[in-house]
Amino acid sequence: MISIEGLSKIFHLNQKKITAVDNLNLTIQDGEIFGVIGYSGAGKSTLIRLLNRLEEPTSGKITIGEKEITTLDKNKLRMARQNIGMIFQHFNLLWSRTVSENIAFPLEIAGVPAKERVQRVNELIELVGLSGRENAYPSQLSGGQKQRVGIARALANNPKVLLCDEATSALDPETTNSILDLLVDINERLGLTIILITHEMHVIRKICNRVAVMENGKVVEQGDVLDVFLKPKQPVTKKFVEQVMENQDGDLDQLLEEYTSGELVRLHFVGETANQALISKISREFTVEVNILSGKITQTKLGAYGTLVVQIIGEKNEVNQTIQFIKEETSVEVEVLVNA
Ligand SMILES: Nc1ncnc2c1ncn2[C@@H]1O[C@H](COP(=O)(O)OP(=O)(O)OP(=O)(O)O)[C@@H](O)[C@H]1O
Ligand SMILES: [Mg+2]
Known about the structure:
Layout: E1 2-13, E2 16-28, E3 33-37, H1 44-51, E4 59-64, E5 67-68, H2 74-81, E6 84-88, H3 99-109, H4 114-127, H5 143-155, E7 161-165, H6 173-190, E8 193-198, H7 201-207, E9 210-215, E10 218-224, H8 225-230, H9 235-245, H10 252-258, E11 263-271, H11 275-285, E12 288-300, E13 303-314, H12 316-329, E14 333-338
Parallel strand pairs: 3-8, 3-9, 6-7, 7-8
Antiparallel strand pairs: 1-2, 1-4, 4-5, 9-10, 11-13, 11-14, 12-13
Helix pairs in contact: 3-4, 3-5, 4-5, 5-6
This protein binds adenosine-5'-triphosphate (ATP) and magnesium ion.
Magnesium ion is lined by residues 44-45.
């Protein structure tokens, strides 16, 4: 477990006081992927840099596992840092070293013998999917490949925690997805705790278990990702949720105007139920035709969430039974929009 208590960081810049992290409290469980989201200047990077003391706290206490990070002397801190890997938006690779040599670097620092180093580097290259690129230089790699090197290097000393500061912000959507998949893969395979900082809600949605929303150096809202998506409380959280839920109903007004046949219902998915499975189940068990007209389903780590507007066409009795079934047998909420 990682526990952060009363953590503050005050910068002094031209006689101005900047409170980047403000009396922040947070608990992160072992093995979870914990997201921290916030706009620019919220204090996210400062928070993550405080966790491995790349930044010295002004006050407060950080405990990772059994170790109180905040009181370690230089030597002990160096040891503790081997348990905390970190990856960055701009990769921070060594440009004059090959892929293998970049990954070997933290092993050299940790004093791992050459033979073991080679073996470990090979394992890591395999793990992050860079086989065949061992001898390439960073300048010869795509952004996604560079981040894979960053990840391999961060994992070299078998850390328990991986800190990711905007690790996908410099990547295109497709590459972002492949890196997020890799993070999930290593989280599951290695049981690694991942703390991930981003200003993109879709990143949180895709891989995080829990999320904290930061504003002005404070956590203003936190919870399970699904709960935060369903019931965002703070204005800043609502804005982030809107990022991924835009145009949820499409042109519903127009749909309603032009609507002629069948029953028009809106289905609210709230977690566990997968939309695909439900629609095919209905089509199998009832003599109705189901057409999805609009809507947006978002897949979070814990289940589908969102709404679909569907048209259910069939005999009145059959349609009613279908709706009854959804209401009673599933966790999907049904809202009848047009009762034809
Ligand atoms: N070394 C520093 N010296 C002075 N002020 C700093 C320093 N580092 C950060 N700050 C200030 O602290 C505040 C928080 O910055 P931080 O980089 O943590 O935000 P962030 O949430 O990571 O933003 P971004 O999304 O732009 O990366 C900002 O007002 C920033 O200007
Ligand atoms: Mg930052």
